[in-house]
């Protein structure tokens, strides 16, 4: 990343604020929930091998809303089973929000939560140091592979933790999305590889293909209203631009050329459609499901 640009993840409170706005302006959680409700139960049907106890690991679980929806589907598919749920999340604010959510939600007595305030890499390090032999029946990594140094190696590590019939669920932006197009054009200027990777589901599929690892994949249609990004000085537009570029105060710190190039591409038909005067960005997600390595 150009030295004058700071990564958004360096300012956690602005990151959380821009992420919240992104969720309000996009259909991201809705399309994930549709997938969890309609597709995930069949994926989870075969896990556990009839055991009365299941091990789950959530990597980058955030505030837990999506986690609890998946655990609820798991519970309906395998009633009477107890669950050991390892939560791996580096943001103390998000972990706090997750704990509050759990305390307010009845009927979770079948789950034992273990809170790990750490990154995926720290979790891997700790796991190896402790020489853990525990295996997991379900592991999910939703929208988090951008924040590890080597996404392929991280996928391989967590796949190695799967039990017989275990499933690893990965959700990332699709290579067909506006994100994919934006990163292809501006990867050099926008991606601070020390902190985050411009990685799409297509990159992970490429890595798996080159290693001969089989997987199932799905495309989830999703949209993001970015109209406010094109109003100079609009506070919400600036927050969204920060989120889209992962650059702190992008509007104020990017060169005029970079800013003009990025905003032009965001409007381009490759990334967005204009509908009823609104600019709707393609926020499609890619889902990848892996089994235990045979």
Automatic annotation (TrEMBL):
Can you cite a GO biological process for this protein?
methylation
**Assigned keywords, A-Z:** Methyltransferase, S-adenosyl-L-methionine, Transferase
GO molecular function list: N-methyltransferase activity
Superkingdom in the source lineage:
Eukaryota
Give the PROSITE patterns listed for this entry: SAM_HNMT
Transmembrane parts of this sequence: none
Entry-linked Pfam families: Methyltransf_23
- Could you say which residues bind substrate here? 28, 283
Task: Give yes or no: UniProt keyword Transmembrane helix.
Answer: no
| Subunit structure as annotated in this protein's UniProt entry | Monomer.
- Name the chain's protein: Histamine N-methyltransferase
Which organism is this protein's natural source? Seriola lalandi dorsalis
